[in-house]
Amino acid sequence: MSKIKKGHVQIGLFHQDEVFTKCTDIDNLPLITDPSGRFEVLAPGSIYHPVLLTPDQKDVFVGPGTLDKHEEKFVRDLIGYLYPKGDHPKSPKTPLKWGEKDIWLKRNIEKAPSSFRLRIDESDWFYPDFILWVLDHKAKIQTLGFVDPKGLGIGAAGGWSDYKILSTIYIPHVVERQLLQNRLPVDQDGNEWQFRVRGVIVSTSPFDALKEHNKFSLNTETFKRTCPEKADFERARIVFQKGVPAAYIPKVLELLWDDNMVDRLMKRAAEVRELGETFSPSHETDYDLVLRNSAKKQTDSEYISALMYDYLKLDALGSFGRVASERCRFELMKSAKTGRFGFGGEKASHISEHATPCEALWKRMKEIRGK
Amino acid sequence: MAGKQSGHSRLKSALVLRDALLDELGLSLISCMPQLSQVETSFGAARGLDEEKYLEAALSVCEGDTSLLRQLHGEVRTACAKVQLAPRYAQYLALILFTHWMHMRQTDPEAFVARLNEALKNHLKKDSTEKKSLTDFTERDLQYAAFWMATASGKTHVLHACLALLTENRGASWARIFIVTPGDALTRQHAEKLRELNAFPVFAYPMDGDHYALKSLPRETVIVIDINKLATQKADEGIRIPTSAFKDDCNLVFVDEGHKGQKSELSLWKRLQQDLAGIDSEGQANRGLLIEFSATFGQVAETERAFDRYAKSVILDYAYDRFHSDHYGKDFWHVKMEGRGDAALEVQDQVLTCALLSFWHQLGCYRLLKSEDGPTDNGAAVSLPLWVLLGLSVIGGTSKSDQEQTSDVVAVLQFLKRLLAKPETLAGLIQTVKEVNVSGTDIVPGEVRMPVKRESADGLSHRILSDVFGWQEGDKPVFRLLKCAEGEMGLGLLRGDAVHYYGVVNVGNAGGLKKAMQECGLQVEDDAFTQSLFASLSEPVSDIHILIGSRRFAEGWDNYRPSSLTLLRLGVKEGSLIIQMFGRVVRFAGTNGDGKRLISPKPQKKPLQTAYIYGLRSSYLEAFLNGLYANGVPESVGKSCKFQTELPDDVNLQSVKTITPKPAEFLVHIAGKRWLGQINKVKLSLTAAVYTSAITRDGVRTEKGTMGQDMTGEFKDRLRYVDLDRLYLELVEMKRQRGWWNFSFEFDAILEALNSDEYELWGLPSSLRIETDADLIRLNRTAATLVRRLFEGAYRREENRNSRYTWVDASESGIPKSYRKERLHVQN
User: Fold this and answer.
1) Of B197, B21, B34, whose CA–CA distance to B120 is shortest?
2) Fewest CB atoms within 10 A around its CB: which of B340, B398, B462, B647?
């Protein structure tokens, strides 16, 4: 029998395509909300297309910037939350809408020097997976939000001193301070916009698995260690990825847009670290920040992670910074007993009821130094 | 693929006969396999065949003569009907290709050989790697066919269908039909299965009669015979039959476990098989057929010079990688631990403890499942778990390797004795598993780690001793040779006068083992009454949970119980044995015997459809697993495409970029210890390596982890052994290599670094022993690494201090220009 001549290529009963020999017409790609087995998809609001997904087949490779399953879910959930009825924008160059605000999305490519990246001390660079610009046209505020879905069980070996966590919580404030030395960005009409940088880590490890990790335990006002609550993680800009978009996306957006007390603390901490002795404290937490900064030589990582351990947990009455206050009070007591810092003869009850022990300690120390 | 290919992937990428057959039918494996597999999933095997769904699917991707495919389908269907087979998709394709091959070699062998050589030429044009290994096809090659099929993927059924095809086609023209097996057990099994079909007269030798009876059988009788019952020459006495008795006939010979007999000492087996099939016979009429079946051709082809023949005779491969990705068999979780030198003994204890913990977990899941809803769940049956420890092929031999293997088994028995004689031993070992710091991966699977974490070592050890061994306070461990069961030693607990057995050692030479044990101070007694414990493993209720043994049960042991496998010191030489044992342990009954695992089992079911495999230096299995998905000769189809930027028109999105300084823009000088306070702690791990492998839908995922503890204090105690001058020179060299001319350091910075609290060193306790020159070198290397890491920290910190963040337009924020999509067309 002679060799059979090949006829036309048939397409097969189930699936077969020319995906690997042709560049796909971007307009005809499926949306990430329903990829239909494709790895090139469109994501409404993305500033470039296609968005690439991890292929189901083991022999297919695509990149750069391929989203893994958790990252893909995050984008799908973001769209799903903003458009629960599925009426998301379909045309290109259209932002996602969050109330009055616009959201633009970018898959951030790692290890590219011009990509968005952060680091603390001598750490490696942290390239967050996504940039989410949140724009308020009325108030003229642009937030460069970054989001990084990550398994924190293994992915954050150092717990509260992990460089990715510290880069998310603290470094944006350092960045903002540096940016302020330049002119504010302006729009086409010449109006100045306020510019913010904020990040969120979306933990793909469930809360229950993480809370028991020693590396995430926190200090209480009685100087004991305790497991963190979800709210403590959230204060540290860590949100847990859930099955349903509405169960976590609102928190992600809220954190990108609104500052909480830890952010305000971090903002001041960045000032303290930069200005050192010239920083003028004006509040109990400021005094604590200054005291800690002048107590010993330490790296940013050490300084900030120590703050995390003390500040993330609120006390039983919901007050912020109680652990720090109690530390200062403890120092005051100790000093009163030993006569340090010009103490002596103070009543213990006076110190134990003092409303601003950090301020008191700072003032005493300053006075002594002045002498 | 970088580096040397495994035998598996090397052979996979060189299957020229398979590719030529597919090509002649206008099919390609890449398009055809998914189509057929989809049919099996959607319609089931029976409808796939009877309602011609398989045919439709194959036709839909056929680029050749569709009438030929239809004709082959018809013949395969008839043959399957005769042997009552509803073929799985891979079996179907194998039979289609085989039928085509059968016709081609009959109708015009000369032209067929010419076409095959053309195909070989084309293959070598695309991939010249095997140019020297692959020789031209000759008519002799048409006497060979081989099916490379995973254990439990149904090779016996394919054998039956081939038998039907070959007898239907040439009917009485075969002088004799043989199925050659590697042992009596498989002879019985084959004969039994053939009889069940009621389609062929069967004669099992020597069970059904002597060689006189054999000679007078009608020619259509299928003779099942163990290779050991064949001889090249006439034997004086006994049951061995010389192949010369069949010399002038044209015989059809099937060989099960065809990989056997390739080693030089066993080449006799090959010769016997070839003589039987009349390979190279002078008379054309006497040239028969030799058809081999094995799961491990890839492994033997590599080491035993059979590469060329199998590349040119494998009709289709359905080896373990495809089999597993089609959801057949269990999942597996494999961990290999390596500890060198003195750490080896500690690691051995760790391996055995972790394996015991994992097995205990399986046992617990089984009991839980059974108490809930019986041992089936959605129809998928699970079996009572069995822990198999494999560490030897020869017991009591005199060669160095035999003695090592014997000592492995003895070491396991010593381990068991330690646990059972002094129960607190296990609590101590579990405590180590609880405390040992493992990063990157784990030494036990996640589902086992949970109870280990939750429960106290003491509580766990008591539960394990009771659940696995049936141990009670006061029991004494005993080892007893079973006089009623050859080669078996019972592992038992003596309670009063009665012995209760929890395990069995099944080896070739139990006497040799007894001697080796006694030399190591283990007492061995005799038991004159207990019947075979090995045989009792097949009973539905059994207290035997542990089997220590050898290749005696690697083949033809039809049992679904093995659930955990612990491999001791096994090397490449034991390759086929490991793969076969692996095949046993991943066997799964599935739903109504379909062999498939559930895709989403309930949590207590998952460990029962997972094989836990622990290895001490089991690098062969690791290489095998990785080789499963290694890509042979990858031929990729791919395209680079542009990303399309879609930035808004009405607003300037701003990003932030970093500007890092050039070396000319900053200087780093370190001296004394002040610099150490400005950098973060460095953590260095010199721990034992742990490798785990598991199969995911994307292939084998291997994770590497470490095991060890904080050794910083111990390291500092040994600083006096560090050669500081040498260390200084090494650091100068590092500076030069990196071009850090802006970096300088004083000698004292090294000393301060080593004496500081700015590092942690993690390792196994034995890693800091100083007894030999090699230990000293290792210690110095560790010191150099630590100081280098600290210096790097100081340099990077300064670099970071001089870095700046600035605005950049989003259009310049690293939007990639293009992407690449690629599919590897693996020649498989």
Assistant:
1) B21
2) B398
User: CB-based contacts of B159: which residues, under 8 Å, 6+ apart?
Assistant: B147, B179, B254, B256, B291, B293
CA angle B793, B794, B795 (to 5 degrees): 90
Quick check: B826 contacting A, CB < 8 Å? yes
pLDDT at A368: 79
Q: Does residue B645 belong to the interface with chain A, where contact is any CB pair within 8 Å?
A: yes
Model pLDDT for residues A182-230, shown as the tens digit of each residue = 777 777 778 888 999 999 999 998 998 888 888 899 999 888 999 999 9
8 Å CB contact between B728 and B747: yes
pLDDT (0 to 100) of residue A366: 85
CB–CB of B816 and A48 under 8 A?
yes
Q: Which amino acid is at B402?
A: D
Which of A64, A104, A144 minimises the CB distance to B648? A104
Which of chain A's residues have a Cβ under 8 Å away from the Cβ of B825? 59
Distance CA B133, CA A292 (A): 72
Nearest to A16 among B31, B62, B645 (CB): B31
**Residue in chain A nearest B30 by alpha carbon:** A16
Q: Are B96 and B57 in contact (CB under 8 A)?
A: no
- Residue A155 confidence (pLDDT): 64
**DSSP conformation letters of B311-338:** HTTEEEEE-HHHHHHTTBS-EEEEEEEE
Give CA B638 to chain center in angstroms: 31
Interface test with B, best of A4, A8, A46, A146 (most B CBs within 10 A): A4
Residue B789: closest CA among chain A residues belongs to which residue? A122
Burial string for A248-284 (b: 16+ CB within 10 Å, else e) reads bbebbbebbbeeeebbebbbbbbbbbeeeeebebeeb
Q: Which of B83-87, B236-240, B662-666 has the lowest mean pLDDT?
A: B236-240
B792, closest residue in chain A (CA to CA): A122
Residues B616 and B348: beta-carbon distance below 8 Å: yes
* Touching A: B residues 320-339, CB under 8 Å: 325
First CA to last CA distance, chain B:
14
Closest by CA to B576, choosing from B50, B8, B3, B41, is B8
> Cβ distance B8 to B628 under 8 Å?
yes
Instruction: Note the pLDDT tens digit of each residue in B234-277.
Output: 665 567 888 877 777 889 999 987 665 545 445 677 777 888 88
Tell me the β-bridge partners of B688.
B707
